[in-house]
Amino acid sequence: MTVVKRMNGQNGTFANAGPNMRLYASEEAFFDGSASRGKGLRFCWDFDEADTTQNDAFGKTATHVYRKPGGYVARLTVVDESENISSDSCFVEVLTPPSQGVALVDRFPKGYMGQVYQSGNTFRCHLIESAAWYGRLDNCAGKEITLRIFGYGKHVPPPPSVTMVSNDRTFSKWFKAVATHSFLEGEWKVLEDASYRYEAAKECMEITFKPDQDPLYVSWSLVYTPQHLRQFLGKVYLMDCVTVERIGSSVEKRPIYLVTIGDQEAVREGKPAVWIAAQQHGYEMGGGPICEGMMDFLVSDDPLALEAKRELVWQIVPMVNPDAMSRPWFRYNAHGIDLNRNWDAFDSGSGHDAECPEPEVEAVKNTVGEWVRRGGEIAAGLDIHDYPASVNGVELLIPPGPHTQREFTQSLIREISPGKFPHAIAKANNSTDPGTFCNWLLSAFNGCCAFTLEVALGGFGPRNSPRKYAAVPRNLTAVGRSFASAIYRAYRDSQG
Ligand SMILES: [Zn+2]
After folding, report:
1. What confidence tens digit (pLDDT) does each residue in 431-486 have?
2. Alpha carbons 74 and 456: distance in angstroms, whole number
3. Matching CATH number, 226-494, of 3.30.360.10, 3.30.499.10, 3.40.630.10, 3.40.50.2000
4. What separation in Å is there between the alpha carbon of 152 and the centre of ligand 1?
């Protein structure tokens, strides 16, 4: 396996788009790519990954004025004298100037407030395409803000934040929004200090609160985007036990990363792999912090983590569907295909149909296939998802098959018992949905085990204990840490 220590580059050429920025609309943003490395570099800047122009400026440095408040992914692509290409991005948070007063903004990755009508400090938001709402209030500190969000009822697409179980599309009395002060740097917290009201006849949820700081991002759920992943990988990719590779691109050409964690000897000696895939579905953003927690544990010096890196190779694709994690879509990739019905069956009748593997699925399939062709063994596969409101908080779903009887599976079930693992339960899942990552692994690689992890998402936590365990990153990274150690312990126990 090629060891690529430079996350964004190859052959000694790598782009560096410089630091993230925060400024007001109409101020000049200054971009500096001079930390990029390579011979005879040419520079090309795209100031807004979400628009259709891609070559906005050329040169090592560039300036740009963003007229509209929002948040923009700016991408730098460098090409060296041998035509090696490398790209990197930075995030520009563009705030509403204070002179313009309180504003509700959604022009940033995952942002969506529907059709918005403002009257003073009250915003009426009509959700049309998606009930996964996410917006930012500018110049709101100390003001009483009211959001009236229409779209919580049976006449609109399923609102994941309020769907309890059994297709109940109405408001849950347990629901609370989550909020943070920065797109990338902030910590999502449950918006406790707010009053929530539901008008069934109007299918409207009303939230009234008084922010104490500007700006304030408010959402039905924590949000995790490719920029969040980039930020995390930037902290770990230089470690000896970590390799980050770009294994492919999404439909919209966003990178798909594979993170390998393991001792170099473990990789060389061909120790079995645990393959982990996350974030196939656009509204299931909890997979981001869960993977961060897993990786955080695995790269650590914890004695169990050291052992886990000696005995297994951890192959993690933390974001299979980066396009959906950039846009307010519910579930699919940019072709409108449900990736988790696209692995080995292309016409499942569930979600949208496709006649062939999508580029995101193909990238991962090829990488797993290559591992096996080189003689690599697969100990287990894990697919990370979020139920809008899982009953227990964390549920390990075990698809049917011969692997359910194996010692590894039985041992993992014992690890996930609620006594050992708060808010968690392991249960059989009779899903034989063709085309899922798990079912593909089980059918393609004889002898492996595969599981799906479903974690509660939405600002209120699991149905059985809504107040105790909110789906915020701090709780989810803790789940990820515990889960990685549980997988390793189960593996060790199964080796006798
Ligand atoms: Zn899912």
Report:
1. 777 789 999 999 888 889 999 998 877 655 566 666 667 788 988 999 899 999 99
2. 32
3. 3.40.630.10
4. 21
